[in-house]
Amino acid sequence: MDDYELVIVGGGLAGLCAAVEAGEQGAEVLLLEKEGKVGGSSVLSGRYMAFAGTAMQKEQGMEDTAEMLVDDMLEVGGRANDEKLVAAYGELQLDTYNWLVEHGVEFLSIQAVSGHSVPRGHTIDSNQAIQAFYDHAVSMPNVTIAVDSPVIRLGRSARGHVEQVFYEQGGRRKTANAAKRIVLTSGGFSQSKELLGHFAPHLKRTIRIGGPGNKGEGIRMACEHGAWMKDIPYLSGTYGFHPTAEGPEKSQALAFYKGAIIINRRGKRFVNESLSYKLLGNAALREKENSTYQIWDQTVMDQSVPGDKLYDFERLLRKGLIKKAESLQKLAEQIDVSPDALRRTVAEYNEGVQNGEDEFGRHTLTHHFGKPTPIRTAPFYAFETKVAMLATYAGLSVSTKAEVLNPYDEPISGLYAAGEIAGGFHGAGYMTGSSLGKAAIFGRVAVKSALGKFQQTIT
After folding, report:
1. pLDDT at 1 exceeding the cut of 70
2. Residue 20: enclosing H or E segment and its boundaries?
């Protein structure tokens, strides 16, 4: 048996932030990753992190506060979120942003994205961020990272403290003893047909594109020791992916947040396009057809953001994933939708934009930000869109100190969790950037709490 102060299970952003924090606190730490390399689902994300009041925002003349960010999170989550977790995020987010910058994470731009009342989606290159933290971690002599090392079970001592990690490495069973605590950062269960079938059978029509290792083992291991679950009723798919995303490239576009509309195969709108893309996914799955389309004009196309994972429409056009035509008639013919229905839908939408009385209640581009524009400037564009199971956003019940809780809200001795594996934070919706944001914030919180160095202020 090998002894460490901390054992971290999972090598995505939450796990790597935890490892670096632990290393800088002087702890002997082992990070176990079951895949052949670190990164997990973090590298598949939309590359946004939700922060407020940053120097980057101020340089661009944007006014934002932690209070505004918290209000948006709670509103988007239908106030089904754990308000204490969200408040903790608000309190710690700016310090974490500065910590990420200090550790070499490059923030590239700021965008207005799902659920934000002001632009606060700080864009990163996920691979660059993961590499920066991996390099920091392996440079510290007190941090050990082991890949190809799947964890099998967790062991509890006679006094009820979860302190042993049983894992495999090189075909051998091994045991690590965590003298202080175990931190679970092993992601969700988007790739587990069994768990999705059990918890979310309504998502069977989604395409599955989550991290290959996200099969819920960490959740199973925690539940064996009495963990409770949160947000399971709100499991949703993510709207915005092209059907080819089931393959190696996860092509995605959120043109509706720049002014596109969403139609079904009958050429009709069916939803307020400014909603969280989780709620849009729910609406799309209620349609009988398995595909929908985003429709926009040159006014929206001109807002393409080169290199952005969600808004680089020109790149998708070059790849042949976006249809283009000089008239709505010809566009409808390309996507096999009734031309009359599409023209009527666009005309009704434009009329609603002009008089401020949209049929579905759309008055902004996303959440409370931006003004819709009429779709009338040729050429016109269409992007076939499906709902994907990218991340589960539901999981273990945790405290603001990242302690894993039992059904009575009591901490399970020795067990902490952060990142996608933790539930209770998002509630009924999802604000873009909050997943990577909570991974970094609560990855650090878990370590500080485990080492007795976290100053609790949220009660």
Report:
1. no
2. helix 13-24
Q: Of the residues 369, 389, 409, which one is the last residue of a structural domain? A: 389
Give DSSP secondary structure letters for 308-341.
-TTT-HHHHHHTT-EEEESSHHHHHHHTT--HHH
Residue 456 within any structural domain of the chain: no
Which amino acid is located at 85 in the chain? Answer: L
Q: pLDDT tens, 394-403?
A: 999 999 999 9
Query: Do residue 138 and residue 149 come from a single domain?
Result: yes
- Of 284, 275, 236, nearest in space to 256 by CA: 275
The two counts, helices (H) then strands (E), for the chain are: 13, 19
Summarize pLDDT for 48-74 with one digit per residue, the tens. Answer: 999 999 999 999 999 999 999 999 999
Q: What CA–CA distance (Å, rounded) separates 165 from 188? A: 19
Q: Is 0.85 surpassed by the pTM of this model?
A: yes
Beta-carbon contacts of residue 102 (< 8 Å; ≥ 6 apart): none
* Residue with the two structure tokens 């190696």: 248
Domain enclosing residue 78, as ranges? 2-234+391-450
**Averaged pLDDT score across all residues of the chain:** 94
Question: Does residue 80 sit in helix, strand or coil?
Answer: coil
- Return the DSSP state at 243: G
In three-state secondary structure terms, 215 is coil
- CB count, 10 Å around CB of 416? 32
Q: Assess whether 195 and 266 both reside in one domain.
A: no
Does residue 455 sit within a domain? Answer: no
